[in-house]
Design brief:
74% of the residues lie in helices and 0% in strands. With 275 residues, the protein is an all-alpha fold. The radius of gyration is 25 Å and the shape is globular.
Length: 275
């Protein structure tokens, strides 16, 4: 009996230097190293031309993808792109070349959905103190939004446990419980929209009164205008996500192609905040 189950260096298909059966396998084995070599050559050329490897954009991109929230929103963008492609395929002829990719597209969408759901554990924690502050200050609109959002996130974890078979509910399958839970996040988007409207109204009311916090300087004016614009963008985003959720939850049957597009746009808006 040898120490290794399979040869680590060479002589086996899984070794560092595998036995090559044909050209297709050679290409498959060399794909990773070829990308590495191309990246290394690019950096060497860049060093010779500009005096340094990397770039400010590269550093910024790395910082962006280092954020869990940024990765989540980019994953969501691809997830909804897959949903949109499924909608496009549904409108095409059965023998269209894109149809053969439907199974792969569905698999990518579902895998990303579960990866994102796994990473949502604990995401309700920062909202709990805000809920307490809203209740104590009498801000019932904020309190209602946080209550619904926290409920959705907690029930999302329950859906995870149902899907894994750790929990079993007599009256609900995992998907039935999930679709019911999506109605909570749908309502949450309505409250988010209302909060954005209120934020804009408060800024404009301060501007009318000449409040120094929004009119006292050029910087204050610029910040107030930026806050109004940001809330307007988020209102647009909440309209898109509301439409998405009424479709995904099964409340109203819409078309995957434009629901997927809406999901990509709303995800891009969220990702831009992490950029």
């Amino acid at each position: 009996m040898t120490f290794f189950k399979t040869p680590p260096l060479m002589g086996h298909k899984e070794s560092f230097l595998p036995l090559i059966a044909n050209q297709a396998q050679r290409n498959q084995v060399l794909t990773g190293p070829a990308i590495l070599v191309a990246a290394a050559v690019y950096q060497v050329v860049k060093k010779q031309m500009n005096g340094k490897c990397g770039s400010d954009f590269h550093s910024h991109l790395w910082k962006f993808f280092s954020k869990a929230e940024a990765r989540d929103k980019m994953g969501r963008c691809v997830q909804y792109a897959c949903r949109g492609l499924q909608g496009v395929i549904a409108h095409m002829a059965k023998d269209h070349w894109l149809g053969q990719w439907k199974t792969v597209i569905v698999e990518v969408q579902q895998t990303l959905a579960w990866a994102r759901r796994t990473n949502r554990w604990g995401k309700e924690l920062p909202h709990i103190p805000v809920l307490g502050e809203a209740i104590m200050s009498g801000d019932y609109l904020e309190a209602a939004q946080r209550t619904i959002l926290i409920t959705f996130l907690v029930q999302d974890h329950i859906y995870f446990l149902l899907k894994m078979g750790i929990l079993k509910f007599e009256q609900y399958t995992a998907i039935e419980f999930h679709r019911r839970n999506l109605r909570f996040i749908t309502v949450s988007h309505v409250f988010n929209f209302a909060l954005s409207v209120r934020a804009i109204q408060r800024i404009r009311a301060k501007q009318e009164k000449g409040d120094p916090s929004v009119t006292g300087s050029a910087q204050a004016l610029e910040k107030a205008d930026a806050d109004i614009k940001d809330n307007q963008i988020m209102m647009f985003r909440y309209v898109l996500t509301f439409v998405q959720m009424i479709h995904v939850s099964g409340v109203k049957q819409l078309d995957d192609w434009y629901v997927g597009l809406f999901g990509m746009i709303s995800s891009a808006i969220d990702a831009s905040k992490q950029w």
